[in-house]
C-alpha cells in the first residue's frame, strides 16, 4: 500500500491537527484550464472523457500538475452516471447541458428501473478510480463522489436541468409514494456506487446535493436529507487501515446545518451564502466544514482574492476542521493564474491558525 505523502485533507476532515488549512476546488479539472480543453477535444466529447480511464486520469492530474499546492484530487466523472446506468440514456447538448433520452414520469417507470451494479454497469468509473489512484502514487488523497438521490431524481423526472423543477415537485406532492420509491432506489444505487469507488481506491467521498436547497424545509428533510442519511449509514467508513471521511454538500442548505450535521457524515460543504464562523458555532464539534468562497471572487484581481481568503480563514478561526474550497464549482471563464493565487493564499495565510 502506497504511503500518503500529504494527508492534511483527510486529517482536517477528521478534525485532527494540520500545519496549514488544506485546499481543493470543486470542478478543479475543468474548462478554465487550456490543457483540459485540449484533452476534451482529443477525446471527442465529455462522456468519452469520463468513460476512458486514461483520459479521466489525465484530466484529474492536470490541476495538480499546474497547482502543486492542491491537497486533494477529485475523480473526473459526472453526477449523472447512475441514471445513465439505469437506462435513461444520458447525452449532452452543446450549450444545453445534460439531457436524458428517457424520462421517469409514472410509478410503473420507477418500478421498472434497475439498481446498477457498480462493477458491471459502472465499471468504467471504478477503472478510472484505480487508474488515478495508481498515477497519484500517494501524492494526495483521491475523492470519489456521487449526486444525491434528490438531485439525481430531478434530472430523471425533468429529462435534464430545470429552473423550477415543476415535474419533480408535482410528483413529490401528487404521488409521494412514487417519489419515495425513486429516491429509495437511488439511495441504494448511490450507496453501492460510492462503496465501489472506496474499494477501487477513493480515500474520501462527497455527496453533491445540488438541488436540495430548492425544497421547502419540510420537503428537504423528508425527500433529500433522509436519503442522504440512509446512504451515509451504509457506506464503508474504513479501508486500507484508514478512516474514509464522508462530506455532504447541499447547495443553499444553510438553513438546515444542524440537521445535516446530525446525518452521520464527517464534514459539511457550505456554499458562499453561509457565514463560516456562524456555521462553526452552529454545528459545534460534530463535523468539519468545507468551503466556502464565492467562485466569482476568482474573476477579481489576485490581491482581492487574497483579501477574501484571509477574511474566510479569520472567520473560521483557529484549529483544525476546515477544508478550504469554493462554495460551488469553479467557472470556465476564470483565469488559471487567479485560481493559482487563491490556492497559494490559503497555505500562505492559514499557518497562523494551526500553531
Characterization of the model:
Its main location: cytoplasm. GO terms for molecular function: uroporphyrinogen decarboxylase activity. It is found in: Cytoplasm. Pathway: Porphyrin-containing compound metabolism; protoporphyrin-IX biosynthesis; coproporphyrinogen-III from 5-aminolevulinate: step 4/4. Pfam families: URO-D. By secondary structure, this protein is an alpha/beta fold. The protein has one domain: TIM Barrel (Alpha-Beta Barrel). Helices cover 47% and strands 13% of the residues. It has 15 helices and 11 strands. A 7-stranded parallel β-sheet has the order 1-4-5-8-9-10-11. A two-stranded antiparallel ribbon has the order 2-3. It has a two-stranded antiparallel sheet with strand order 6-7. Helix 2 packs antiparallel against helix 4 and helix 8 crosses helix 10. The longest helix is centred in the middle third of the chain and has 25 residues. It starts with 7 loop residues before the first helix and ends in a 5-residue tail after the last helix. The mean pLDDT is 96.
Amino acid at each position: 500500500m502506497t504511503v500518503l505523502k500529504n494527508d492534511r485533507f483527510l486529517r482536517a476532515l477528521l478534525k485532527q491537527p494540520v500545519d496549514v488549512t488544506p485546499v481543493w476546488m470543486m470542478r478543479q479539472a475543468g474548462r478554465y484550464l487550456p490543457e483540459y480543453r485540449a484533452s476534451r477535444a482529443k477525446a471527442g466529447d465529455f462522456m468519452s472523457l469520463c468513460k476512458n480511464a486514461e483520459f479521466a486520469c489525465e484530466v484529474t492530474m492536470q490541476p495538480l500538475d499546474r497547482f502543486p499546492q492542491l491537497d486533494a484530487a477529485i475523480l473526473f466523472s459526472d453526477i449523472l452516471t447512475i441514471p445513465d446506468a439505469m437506462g435513461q440514456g444520458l447525452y449532452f447538448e452543446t450549450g444545453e447541458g445534460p439531457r436524458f433520452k428517457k424520462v421517469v414520469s409514472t410509478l410503473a417507470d420507477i418500478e421498472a428501473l434497475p439498481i446498477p451494479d457498480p462493477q458491471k454497469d459502472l465499471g468504467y468509473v471504478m477503472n478510472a478510480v484505480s487508474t488515478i489512484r495508481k498515477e497519484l502514487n500517494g501524492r494526495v488523497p483521491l475523492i470519489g463522489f456521487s449526486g444525491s438521490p434528490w438531485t439525481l431524481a430531478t434530472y430523471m423526472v425533468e429529462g435534464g436541468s430545470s429552473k423550477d423543477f415543476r415535474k419533480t415537485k408535482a410528483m413529490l406532492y401528487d404521488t409521494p409514494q412514487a417519489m419515495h420509491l425513486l429516491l429509495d432506489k437511488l439511495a441504494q444505487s448511490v450507496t453501492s456506487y460510492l462503496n465501489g469507488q472506496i474499494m477501487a481506491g477513493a480515500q474520501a467521498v462527497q455527496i453533491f446535493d445540488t438541488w436540495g436547497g430548492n425544497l421547502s424545509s419540510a420537503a428537504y428533510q423528508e425527500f433529500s436529507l433522509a436519503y442522504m442519511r440512509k446512504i451515509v449509514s451504509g457506506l464503508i467508513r474504513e479501508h486500507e487501515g484508514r478512516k474514509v471521511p464522508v462530506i455532504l454538500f447541499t447547495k443553499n442548505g444553510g438553513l438546515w446545518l444542524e440537521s445535516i450535521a446530525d446525518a452521520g457524515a464527517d464534514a459539511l460543504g457550505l456554499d458562499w451564502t453561509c457565514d463560516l464562523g456562524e456555521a462553526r458555532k452552529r454545528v459545534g464539534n460534530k463535523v468539519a466544514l468545507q468551503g466556502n468562497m464565492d467562485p466569482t471572487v476568482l474573476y477579481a484581481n489576485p490581491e482581492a482574492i487574497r483579501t477574501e481568503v484571509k477574511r474566510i480563514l479569520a472567520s473560521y478561526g483557529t484549529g483544525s476542521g476546515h477544508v478550504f474550497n469554493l462554495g460551488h464549482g469553479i467557472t470556465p471563464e476564470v483565469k488559471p493564474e487567479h485560481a493559482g493565487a487563491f490556492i497559494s493564499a490559503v497555505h500562505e495565510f492559514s499557518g497562523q491558525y494551526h500553531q
